[in-house]
Amino acid sequence: MTDIINLLATLPPDHELVAARQARPDALANAQRSFEALLEPVNPGTFTYGERYAVATYVAGVHQVANARTLYSELLLDDAPATLRDAVLTAVDHALSTGPYGTYRESGLVDESEPGGHVTHDAGALGERLAAAFDLAHLLTFHPRDARPETIDRLTAAGWSADDVVSLAQLVSFLAFQLRVVHGLQVLSGRPVTVAEATRLTGDGRSPEPVEVDPVRPERFVRHSLGWTPWVTPVDKADLSEEQLDSLIRPERADMPYFRLLARDPAALKARTLTDLDIFCNTDGGLSRADREWSATVTSRFNGCVYCASVHAARAIEEGGEERDVDTLLADGVGTAVDTPVWAGLRDASVALTRTPIAYDAATVQQLRGLGLTLADLLDHLYATAFFNWANRLMLGLGEPTVPARFR
């Protein structure tokens, strides 16, 4: 089976990283199946192959992952005229920025807001559907915490169905994972990776929305359970097909709106879930579960995903992590000191890998090696951080966290 990640990372079959990736076989296989489900589905429906490759070219371009941009632009040419490919690459050149930034809706986090530019793409060259899709792709790439219900409204107005919106969000979010794994593997292989300097886009002159205390919305990062309200209608539990039920992996997820929403693209959901379970639940070697959960929490804190941070902060402590370090991270952010040296190194590496353009480099790896991390540890960290760049974008882009009544 072709492995797009190894291909994009230009790893020869006998490279030690290729062998090391086999330690997480379900993650490896299902990352590939995610690519196939989102970019080469048997039935693309109204989200055409050309649109999928155009979005992938755009996302790879603004991430500045050259091999991926080249591959996806070549695939785009198989399904669309060269004029569209040229329009996509022009859009990339005008959309480069740095992230993550954005404004918080949570009243206790207003002081941490970092406003920046919102890009609205020209429908003249791209068409209304792709222009709206690129608006979402730019937001999810650089400033996912700026997502609002109105973000979905623009897609709906441009003709995107609910199923298409979910597949689009999955595609952009999956690419945030795939491109980070590719970049990280290149760095781990000792290959120099060149990323051009970028300047953050400035604000668009809009007044910031007022933020008020709302008992239904969390005020800040927490480590108790939260609810989540979707902005796109999930599939009704009674209407889930056999394929959709199978994609949930765990039957109890049929009661959770988030998973019933993602079940609108069951092939993508199933592959994503199996990738997730192998990265975090396969404890045969590599990083401890607590270290992986810590990396997920750091990533979520940096991206601004209050929901994901709450789940994985609690899990990091349950798995034996240092409670004080977790609470410091949640309260004060990724720039504050923590007591555990390995966690400090993992935090810095997660931040570097989460930045866009990606800042994970040889110095990052050297710091982790100096803390005693093995190649298996480094891969687990790479996977855990990259995966939560996928998870955060889905949670932030398709809905918002809510506070259960017992915590109000």
TrEMBL record:
Query: In what residue span(s) does the Carboxymuconolactone decarboxylase-like domain sit?
Result: 269-335
Q: Name one Pfam family in it.
A: CMD
Top-level taxonomic group: Bacteria
Q: Which NCBIfam families match?
A: ahpD_dom, CMD_Avi_7170, perox_Avi_7169, peroxid_rel
Q: What is this protein called?
A: Alkylhydroperoxidase domain protein
